[in-house]
Structures are given as structure tokens and as C-alpha cells.
Amino acid sequence: MTDAKTKRSTRRSFLRTLLAIPATAFFFRNIRLTEHDDIVEVDGWILKRSDIL
Amino acid sequence: MIFQDAAAYAASGFAPKVCVIGAGPAGITIARKLATAGIPVVLLEAGSNEWTEESQDAYKGVTIGDPYFDLDSTRLRYFGGSSNHWAGWCRILESYDFEPKTYIQNSGWPIRRSDIDPYFDETYDILGLSPFRPDVPVTDNFRLFQVIKSEPVRFGEKYAAELEASKTIAVVLNTEVTELSGDGRSVTGGKLWSRGQAAGEIHAPYFVVATGGLENSRLLLWSNERSNGGVVPNAAALGRYWMEHPMYITGDALITNQAFELDHEGEAFFMPSPEAMARLQLPNFHVQLETAPYRGVKALIANMTCYAAPETTEWLSHKLGQRLQCTARVHMDWEQLPREHNHVALSATEHDAAGVPRIALHWKKDESDRRVMLEGMRLFGEEFARKDLGRIHISDWVRNGEDYPDGMELAGNHHMGGTRMSDDPKLGVVDRDCKVHGMSNLYVGGSSVFATSGQCTPTTTIVTLALRLGEHLSRTISNS
């Protein structure tokens, strides 16, 4: 598996994890991945992933 | 010498080498520079010593396109010009601003910032500034830069006594040039209007139009129409490529590690690196953090619940609460691209008291404005989080591409372009010396010569360019 595919897979896993938690899915209405693995945009907030894990 | 009208001036027998039209920051600076070389200058001011409704009326006009300020409130028409309501914020265009960019059509000036460097000390002296502190890199792609919030210089007030005492500069108040006459090679004279009536003509070997970033286009468009192209023989760009600095509150910030210096008003200014702009193909912009007192935190969070998911806000505030230092509004100003269709035109139906057509300003933001706002906020927010300086929230209207909100500032009252500088007469009105292409004795001073606008307030660069033009004209006259 290439690095790019690994990254995409990690992002998908992350999203799946988020959406699998009902409370989190309820909290976050709009999630956008960024070009950085450690940063995610949630409802317009630009957060570190560690903020929401 | 200061004369109160054209009749008093005519009776003086003063013989100018240069006629400078407009006594704002550019006109006064050019006149003073010429005077230091011993060159006699007549400096015409359409208004009087103070604001009057009658004078200001000539600035009325309409804007077609996006909402904009009333054209008779975004500028002032009396001695000292729009410096009379200037806020005093200073910054000079960056080196990067002068350079052409492959991804921005019609970008690039024919001069570089090194061409205006020699005039910085004199500019600082005029505006009462200390040299700017070096920029401070705060993230990989942003640097903190200094905006000097100076005590604003009111040029009319500051230099009134000097000009009154001068034997080389003749200021004529209450007197405007309604139109210049030209034969396609040089200006041959200007029709005067003084105290509500025609007042003959003025003649001088050289003319400088310095009536402001909207009015320069108006005077030259009307003069050109009346003289069948004899004043601006290459008029393809005349009035066009007009620019502003759109500015809006685009989000909020929670600051958890204030590792950067705030100014005395609790504000900090950040500008992207040239590399970041090139990579994202963005024009220049700046992000301004306007911090709120700590007691404002609860109010800010409460306000956020109006537009963010309430649970998100609650969760985030709790998460960050332990290390929250302060909050801030995020304010963005950006460089509007030079678009030919944004232009100053003459009204076909409305005229001022002197019979000059009023301005019809065609001005509209476009997709590039949306893009720099959103991508700029995202870039800044990502950098802010990665460096753990805090967290940024982008306003919903920015993310969702909704209408620009009412009740915000809209723009900076910065009127740029219309007689832009270019080596190519098809793309500009003046050459690198601010001389009108094809004309031997006609020059333009002020922000209308800006080829691009950068992200900063224009007055400092206006004064610097005026000093450069004054020196160039002094040299030209001395050598002729």
C-alpha cells in the first residue's frame, strides 16, 4: 500500500470512528478533512485531531 | 503663499513651472519636493480650509455592482484632502507586491520596491514614523508584521504655515481644474472654476493630477472626452483596474498560547509568506486578531452558539478552558485583483455644479475574493492549531458562500487604480515615472497609479511615490 493510500485509509478510519460514536456524530454536523493528518475542520472550527479523540 | 481664489492668484503674477491639481497627501508632498529644488509650483485645491457642503457635493456619484460607501463620504474635498479623515495606519507595500505573479493576470509593477526604498526616511519624517520593525515568523506560512497606528497627519493643517510662508509654492483654495486641454502630445492648459464660476485658464510647462484615487480618473476621462483623446492618447486602461481592500470579520479565535506580541490596542497582524501565496495561488491578505478582554470569553462563547452547533461550542470551550488565555475576533483584509471591468466611468446624466459629469463607479467582488477569504482563513487556522497558538473558527457565511453581511466595514476606503502604472500603454495610463503615456508634460500622483493593491493601507506608499515623482520631475525640469 502506498503512503497516499495509507493516509486516505487513516482518514476514512477516523471518520468512520467519529460517525460510529452517536454522541460525536450528533455534536459534529460538518466535518472536513484538511491536507494535514493532524488537523480537521469541524463545524468551521479548525482543530487538532487530538482535541476530539 | 495661500490665495483664497483664482482671481487673487491671477493678480499675483506668479509664474509656475508646475501646476499640481489637488492638495491632499500626494499633491502637497509633490509640491514641497519641487519647492526644495527651487521650482515654482501652483497647488490648486478645489475646497477651502474646511469642509463645506457645497464643495463636498462635487463628490456625489453612484456605485454600480456591490454595495459601497457613498462616494461623497468615502473621501474629503478640502485642503489636505482625505488625510482629514485618515485613521493614521501605516505600512508600505511589500517587495512581493511589486512582482508579477504567473497566477494573477495583470499583476506586477514596472518598478520594484527597491525603487522607492530611497524615499522611506523622508516618508517617515512626513508621517512622523519610526522605521518599521522587521516581520516575525510565527508559523511556517505566516509572519507577524507591524502596522504603525500613527497620530494621523492632516496634511493641510500640518503644512499650512509652511505653505503660507513659501515664496515658491502658491496654494490656491476654492479653485479646481474642470478639464485639461491637450493635443495628444502635451497638456496646453486647464479650465478653472473658482467660487462657483468659470475663472479662465491656467498654463504651466508641467501638470500633475493629484486629486485622489477616484477623482484622477474622473478628471482625465472628462478631459479626454472634451479634447478628443488629446489628454490621455492611450486610454484603454483609463478609469479601469480600480481596486479596493475588501475587509470583513471572518471568524473568531480562542488563543491558548499567545506566543506573539499584541500592539497597544490588543491587536496583531499576520501576513502569509510569498511561498504560501504562490503555492495556493492567492493574492496578498492579512489576518488581524482583535483580542477581547478575558471577561468577554463567556460572551463570545454565548455568541458562538448562535451559529455553531451548541454542543460543539460547549464541548470545545470546556476542552480549551483550562488553558484559554483570551479570545479574538478574526478580521481579514485582502488584495483585490486588478480587473478591467472594475472601473470609474462618467455619468451620462448627472453633473456637478461646474458641469463635470459625476462618477459612476462599477465595482464588484468576484470568486477570487471568496476564495482568498476562505482559503486564507483555512491556512491561518490550520497553522494556528498546529503551532498550538489556539483555535480558529470560520464564520458560517464565509464557509457556505452566503451573501456578504450587512453592517460590517465592507472595505478600507482605499481607492486604487484607474490610472495604473505599466510599461504597456494598453495596460496602464502612466509609465514607471508616473508620466501619462504619450504625453510630455502630464503626470499623475496618488494611489490611482497603483498597478496592484497589496494588502496594506495605501497612504504611506502614496507619500513615498509622491516623493519619488517630485524628485523625478525636479530632475527633468532642471535638465530641460
Would you kindly provide a written description of the structure presented here, covering whatever features stand out?
The complex is a heterodimer of chains A (53) and B (480). Helix content of chain A is 53%, strand content 21%. Chain A has helices at residues 3-20, 22-27, 49-52, and strands spanning 31-33, 39-42, 45-48. The longest helix of chain A has 18 residues, at 3-20. Chain A has a 3-stranded antiparallel beta sheet with strand order 1-2-3. Chain A has one domain (3-52). Chain A has 53 residues and is of the alpha+beta class. Chain B is an alpha/beta fold. Chain B has a domain at 2-61 and 75-129 and 153-243 and 414-479: 3-Layer(bba) Sandwich (FAD/NAD(P)-binding domain), CATH 3.50.50.60. Chain B has 13 helices and 24 strands. The radius of gyration of chain B is 23 Å and the shape is elongated. The mean pLDDT of chain B is 94. Chain A binds chain B through residues 26-29, 34-36, 38-39, 41-48, 51, and chain B through 251, 308-309, 311-312, 315-316, 319-320, 378, 381-382, 384-386, 388, 391-396, 399. Strand 3 of chain A pairs antiparallel with strand 21 of chain B, so a sheet runs across the interface.
